[in-house]
Amino acid sequence: MKKILFTHSYFLRFDPKQWITGKPYAPLGTLYAASFLKEHGYAVSFFDTMFVRSPEAIITPIEKVEPEIFVIYDDGFNYLTKMCLQNMREAAFQMIRYAKDRGCTVIVSSSDSTDRFEMYLNAGADFILMGEAELSLLELTNTLAKNETDYFAIEGLAFKHNHAVVKTKARAVIKDLDSLPYPAWDLIDMEPYREMWLKHAGYFSLNMGTRGCPFKCNWCAKPIYGNRYNSRSPANVVNELKMLKERFRFDHIWFCDDIFGLKPGWVKEFADLTEKAGLVFKFKMQGRVDLLLQENNIRDLKRAGCDNIWMGAESGSQKILDAMDKGTTVQQIYEATHLLKNCGIKPSFFIQFGYLNETKEDIEKTISMINELLPYEIGISVSYPLPGTVFFEKVKSQLVNKTNWNDSDELALMFSNTYQPAFYKQLHRYVHKSYRKHLAFENIKQLFAHPLRLNISRLKRALSAFYYLPASYIDKQKLSRLEKTAHEFTN
């Protein structure tokens, strides 16, 4: 039986924003794949690149384990790996070379390698697993274990044959997720994760996820799970939660599903089971504003422990939402936000600037929506074209010199739009400070309305107005100058 060494290509130190934030999540997809092969009798080892300083760190475990098969299997649940960052791609290429130099057969599975399989094969990888990969990995490993070379019948595979790239038939996604074993939590050292979380957040969070999203926002890349949605049963999720609570004593869970609890009745059953099991924890999740308005989802989410919901608000302009094929309305953003606040759940917004044909008026509508609704947190990005999307096809002719960000904080606009890239970088700074200014004013208002509720935290937020009032004004002036420059340039 061949020995297999798993790793992944996300290096937290290579993503400065995330390193400073200090809230890392274990590579869930990697642990699922390792667990799946363990269940089928393979000798599996795992090396975690999350905290190491260099891809060279992989050399020691390769030489110690002496694996016949080296697998770079990225976490398809984490948006950071879905972004296909250049720093991580280069790290993967280096690890491929180190493994090949030591006689390993190299297999790669990731969003980036699925999109750019020829590039990874040219970098030295022997096989690329396309899309959802557990079954393809098992079939390929079985074939390699038998020293056979007939790879053409294995679905979801790319490889070279007679110097030509071969791509086999696409594999259907797994429908019965309860049939999969839980991730191989026993292979990972969670203490560095715990220490960093406690240092930066004061609590310890773990991640769990289900697979897929049936909605078709035209900028959203889905190279792993496609447009199909398959979920674990509420009982399966709660049983894993009980195990994780006992083993790791977590305080908080990030349900990293693209869409949490989409199936009718799922959230209610989940809430019932968590209460029955006596599980007490907080969690954050991602949700669509239209779905949050259905059934009694918000009430049941609160009952289960939901503390924070990240909604893909994207824009305060209905024109832009429609152009994105988002399928939601600005009015639904307002309704869902108010309902969440009334229920004691924190609403947070994903915001996207720079979509095609976005105008100054569209931008102002988005800023007004943020400052009026005052979500708990905002995550601001600029439109980022990824292969396989309608949006990518519209701008791909412009993606000549640069197609990926180096790290998650780069925010480079890689195609021509209403304004130059520098404008959107400054817009990012201004919107954050404007939002913080309005939050400070809201806290001042609350202090006057409810003086007996005064505490240090609220006082600090109120006093922050002395910083954000002038800071947002200065950033607004800088933004106006960039806007004026863009106007002069186009005229």
Gross morphology = globular
Spatially, the strands of the biggest sheet line up as 2-1-3-4-5-6-7
Average pLDDT, rounded to a whole number, is 95
Oligomer: single chain
Largest sheet: 7 strands, mixed
Distance between the termini: 69 Å
List keywords for this structure.
491 residues; alpha/beta; seven-stranded mixed sheet; six-stranded parallel sheet; 15 strands; globular
Describe the overall structure:
This protein has 491 residues and is α/β, with parallel strands linked by helices. 45% of the residues lie in helices and 14% in strands. The protein is built from 20 helices and 15 strands. The strands form three sheets. The chain has a seven-stranded mixed sheet with strand order 2-1-3-4-5-6-7, sandwiched between helices. Helix 16 links the parallel strand 14 and strand 15. Helix 16 (360-373) packs parallel to helix 18 (421-449). The model has no long low-confidence stretch (mean pLDDT 95).
Secondary structure blueprint with pairings:
Blueprint: E1 3-7, H1 16-21, H2 28-39, E2 43-46, H3 59-65, E3 69-73, H4 79-82, H5 86-101, E4 105-109, H6 111-115, H7 117-122, E5 127-129, H8 134-145, E6 157-161, E7 164-167, H9 191-200, E8 205-208, E9 211-212, E10 229-230, H10 234-248, E11 252-255, H11 266-277, E12 282-287, H12 289-292, H13 297-304, E13 306-314, H14 318-323, H15 330-343, E14 346-353, H16 360-373, E15 378-382, H17 390-395, H18 421-449, H19 456-463, H20 465-490
Parallel strand pairs: 1-2, 1-3, 3-4, 4-5, 8-11, 11-12, 12-13, 13-14, 14-15
Antiparallel strand pairs: 5-6, 6-7, 9-10
Helix pairs in contact: 10-11, 11-13, 16-18, 18-19, 18-20
